[in-house]
């Protein structure tokens, strides 16, 4: 849900701004209205410095060199030293690549010495270096020209010829430049660069000990930038002698915040925040729902008078993800990955979400009786509880496909109910009759149709309910959809809405078939790997065949989990962001609640 906000107007004497914002940062709950982007050269420079430091931290966190022992640094500026070390490492690796290429060029020519070549030239002789494909090499060339084969690698023949300096020289194969040095020279330079690379890596690993300090420095810089942007958002009054700030505090924090504000001696006025004030949006959800707030933020937070879609996303994204994965074994793997992520600092916050998605996948996969693409409903151990598994066929159609359509219809109906409630809350009942008409027609029709299918309603009662629903809905859709327009204009608008709704709803419902299709694709691909492994293993009597069997199964299912997880993230997100948000009228136009907070400063 969206936390209620109280709006504050702070009035200060010119010159007290810095001290006051410092005090607000200590309180840590006041969101001062400010720009979220740089507003001048100074703020742009501050942001660039913070982003550079963040990149350095990211590179240090990702630095991992096997077999290298860290060298503890003694530095007053670890960020600058780390950046120089990474630049040096990149330069050395480029040099190493060039030296390796040079080594490969020199290797076929053996240990030619440039000094020996100069000696021969002083004696009036010149060596000419050639290379040609082995199939094109003609041994008869040696009879026409002094020729010596240096090496033959199976593809190319490397050879030299000799001529006197000053004589005309021609040969059917293009001449190459003479080697600039020997392979021994290249090897010595490569060893030197490798030693420098090892030392640079050791320095980088040693600088990782400075990560806590660098992170605190980054927090302080971001806090300073935030305070500076807030300062630039101040308004002048009384010919520049007075400065005013506008800020917002969540209602739950008002009492404690005002106790601290009173200590500052600042004058302030407060009132309930209104939509027109564009207050920041703070989401207040339970522990389960709050895990999915990161998905809401990917689209945008709601308007202050809107609704928080996170509770709906938490249930349906989890359900859709589990449908797409659709395998109990894959769910257990995700749970294990989630627990491992708790030990990785940069992914620690996502670990609970991954574990939750894994639990949902394991449960749905079990109901779909699938374990690493094997049908566990046929296993003897599960025969006593076989009845809880999803039936293979529902009304003659694939059970998973039918369930996907049913879940999709429920999802869209819920979106329409939410849209109707929000429209009534914001615009009033009389100005929402068109929305009520469509909701009664579609949601009411689905409910009545479902009850009729299961035999709760007989044919005559169903007919009269449909007639009443259709009549009442038609009045809202075609006659009273806008109380300020003429009835003729409403009829025209109703016809246009009918066309758009009818065509749109069909496409929206069919979109949920992707849940069935992705789950089926993952299951079939996993089954294919199982079959390949089984064909390799045979009857299992050959012990040595277990190794390729395990390799095929493990690698195959690893690839399948990776691809299935990608699809299971993207497509459920699409169903929530497009189908649900469109039918619920959700718009992510709110700004994130971001209070001033300098508690991380050193």
Any overview of this molecule?
The chain is α+β, with helices and mostly antiparallel strands. It folds into four domains: 100 residues, no CATH class; 66 residues, no CATH class; 183 residues, no CATH class; 111 residues, no CATH class. Helices cover 58% and strands 10% of the residues. The chain is built from 19 helices and 13 strands. Strands 1, 2, 7, 8 and 9 form a five-stranded antiparallel beta sheet that branches. Strand 12 and strand 13 form a beta hairpin. It is extended. It starts with a strand and ends in an 18-residue tail after the last helix. The mean pLDDT is 86.
Q: Would you summarize the structure shown here?
A:
With about 600 residues, this protein is an alpha+beta fold. The chain is about 60% helix and about 10% strand.
